[in-house]
What we know:
Among the domains are: 78 residues, Protein-Tyrosine Phosphatase, Chain A (Alpha-Beta Complex), CATH 3.90.190; 114 residues, Immunoglobulin-like (Sandwich), CATH 2.60.40.1110; 41 residues, no CATH class. The relative contact order is 0.13. A 4-stranded antiparallel sheet has the order 4-1-8-7, with no helix packed on it. The chain has a 4-stranded antiparallel sheet with strand order 3-2-5-6. By secondary structure, the chain is an alpha+beta fold.
Amino acid sequence: METYLGDNPENVVVVHCLTGKGRTLTVCACLLAWLGWVESASEGLHLCCDRRGGQVEALTTPSQRRYVQYFSRLLDCEPLKREALLLRSVHLEELPLEGASSAVQVDVFNCGTLVFATRVALAGARSVDIVCGRVIRGNIVVRVREVCADGSRRSVCRCMVHTGYVSGTVRLQKEQLDGACNDPRCSDAMCLELRVEETAEEYKPDAAGNRLEVYESLLLDTSSALWRELLYRKERRNAKKGNTVFDIDSEEEKPLPVKDPSRDYLLELALLEDELANKPATPQPAAELFSASEEQSLDTLMQSLDMSDEEGEEAKEPLEPLDLDQLAATMESSENEEGHDFNSEFGV
């Protein structure tokens, strides 16, 4: 986006997601901080939410706000921890279960890959400690669902964390859990704990098995061009600190950071991706990931990360492809016929 904006002063970047809220605002906030137009990503998030017309807590999920904080720490050049973590167990308290015969299903994803999944019958209990014993590293998603007596599943909560910013056990209360934070069925005593301990194993991205980990390798290498760029932007931001107020309504051209070949992180990434393109992917066999009993509890839906949207609802059927030309024509026609000011409505 930065490159596109810098190519031509007339270029405009449009950022959107399904609802135009959580993911959109998260990306916009981080972009403003990356460009140095705000002092931190958290400040950028409040600015974007104010422009969107709502409170941060109402427009974003706890995990999105957590990753905005991670991004601020990254921009402050705080190195990520390189060590992997052993996830000993997932502990859940005060689950909002509806049936006495309910079971709870817990899925753990590491960099988008399912690494642990199990179902546990609770027999009326509302708290449970699920032993995992998995080594985790990088981006982690934990999804908790209730399995009802009729076999249907109901979302309970989700959370996303990055092991590079984790120190000791991660304890998340109701207000820190996606889905649960706004669910009246969840009591204030509800919590999720990721009970982890450090291992001697250093984090080594397995790009051959999971291509998403290529990005992690650049984040962890403090000698990379990406880190040189981070240091440059931190110095640039500190030099301007307190002297710049970003006016989102101003038509004045905003300055972009000066490019330098020694900090060309995009070229560095392109070369790394090109190198990986010539290597065959070697995904880990399922037999090495799950015990026989765990494999029997999995079904096809659990093989994909069917994450819920920002509203906390379960994923729906795939949407039809959006015809942007048809949408634009419809909007133009409606505006002409009804005099509706779409520019004013959407703030463009």
